[in-house]
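sorry to bug you again but im stuck and you know this stuff better than me. what follows is a protein written twice so to speak, once as letters and once as structure tokens for the fold. id like you to explain what the token line says about the fold, in plain words if possible. anything you notice is useful, everything is just below.
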Amino acid sequence: MRTSPRPPVTPGRTAPSPDPFWSSQAPARSGPNTSSLPHRTLPVRRRALAIFVTVLLCATACAGPQPDPSMTPAPEPTGPVPGVARNAPLHAVDPGLVAAARDLPETYPGSAPRDGDPTARVTLGRASPGDEDYRHGSVGLSLESTDLADPRLGKDNDDLVSILQSLHEPTLRFGGNSTDRRFFFTPTDEPIPTDWPLAKGEKITKVTPADLERVAALARRTGTSVILSANLARYDPDRAADLAAHARAAFGDRLVGLMIGNEPNGFHRGSDDPLGVKGPEWNRTVYARQLTAYARAVHRKVPHLRIVAPGAYSDPWWEAAAEAPGTAPFALALHQYPLSECGTRWTRQKPTVANAVAPQTRERVDALVSRARSVADEHRVPLWITETSLSSCPGGNQITETLAAVYQADYSMRVQALAAERVTAHSSLGPCHGGPPMSPLCSDGTVGSPGERFGLRANGLALALIASIPQGTMTPARTGSEDLTAFAVSHPDGSTSLVLSDFRDPATAGPRTTTVSTPGPVQRVTQSQLRGGSWRATAPAGDAADPHGASGSPSAQGTGAPAPGDAAASYPADPRVALSVENALRPTADGAVSVDGYGLPITPPAVRPEVAGVRPGATSFAVSLPAGTTTVLTIETKHATARPSDPASPSGDGTPAPQVTPGTPRATTRSGGQ
């Protein structure tokens, strides 16, 4: 890990005007906890850093003979971050430099408690043997198997590289409903089959070893682990073995598992089911027998490759998969969509904001994951959640693209506390306008012609915020309120990351003073926060769909006008990159979903603003938390050896309100319901 210090600020320089987020959160009173944002004086640590950088630059410039100026090409004009080229993609820049250019305050605005606000308490325990690990790679994305053939999915797509790097060595799973219905892998470039049953408008996608090699290059560049899926509905164990062999050759050890089919419990649900791929003879016994045949064929060509199954949401199918012989090494795969009542039944499972933030939804998550964990524990295998989202209903609804993403942040921590080793949110490479609205990421272009620029929606920002937490061990954290959840991760340096999700309505509830009790003395606490003006607020990911400056469209980070001192106003944006440094410096519009008032990159823990009023050496501190937020507090102990600093490599930005292309129905990331 590395610490990313803020670049030096010239003494006497006037700080840029604070963006709307910081202005709205600054305390309106004077006193020791007041955060004064404009015209900050240069802190001692910044002056020292400035001196160091000046000496270093002088030493570099004066050392050795200098080249003839006439022979030296003119340097590329830099962008708003010194030393960084114009329109540099986020993955090419230390996120600490971006955070410094944003000129974040020393003290987090609004973090100081206020008299008269409601109160809550959080109690942290000590780590103990048997606590679950929190590791990089545990949070990731799931795509359709057919996306393997998408030429945009490669190491040269700057936005996708930035997004994957922002998730810190994530898991990228390829599966979904397309696996058993439209996915055809061939190592010899065979013609596409013509006898598969297809729904109207569907087509079979052919994937070849060249596609695997292209995606593998992206995985290597971003430190990504990969799970692939084999078509089970078109029974062909030898073809699955060929897929595994070519995938091992392409991905090497980054290939962590091969799923056999996708949700086999849904292969036959009646003759009128549009997703049906099997007849009434299909059952768990047949499935277990075929799973064994696939596993044995795969292991003949790729010994010890982990078999992943069943990718289902039904207890009996978990048991059938876990008990199938010949599958070791094995991972039990769970799929979960808690609000997937797309009709009129089961009102508590309809995709509404009220249900998204309700305690009973979190209770159902706990119940299903706990049951799956029991099966995994019984068979001594790991539990992976290879596909999840808040809902799988097609089209837009109250929760798509909105601040209900607070649920996604809570879920990502909750399931890891319940021993899920990997969790991948189902996603799409489709366009922001007309593509699946629950996908954490989306592209520019249209449904018929998606583009190469990508951004993150609100739930994508939530994933990136959680992924910015350094590795460690899940430790006990208790709250006394059903609308406030807490999860803690202790780190080897003695620090602790505390994730607090407040499920009160941000449109009607004010800040709440939360007192955190710790098992040891505290030296310093920093903060980062996902928030928005209301549960219906969105993040401006859809701006990736509009080239910068076109038709007065907003920037990729959310504002229609250039930021104060915007260097990008004097030169054109790169039409291929949405997630550039210039766009990362533009604050989001007031009330939009953001992390600390911006899109990505997430500010690294070591350089985040501090919580106001923390007394060094105390065993408790108080922080004011707005309603409808997920807050990550980094609590440094008195004897911490170093600050956690795994910098959040950049990611996307956000999303607009749902927009539908005329005549084109909104899709679902799953191409169907659960």
In short: The chain has a mean pLDDT of 83. The longest strand covers residues 522-531. The first helix runs from residue 20 to 25. The chain is about 20% helix and 20% strand.
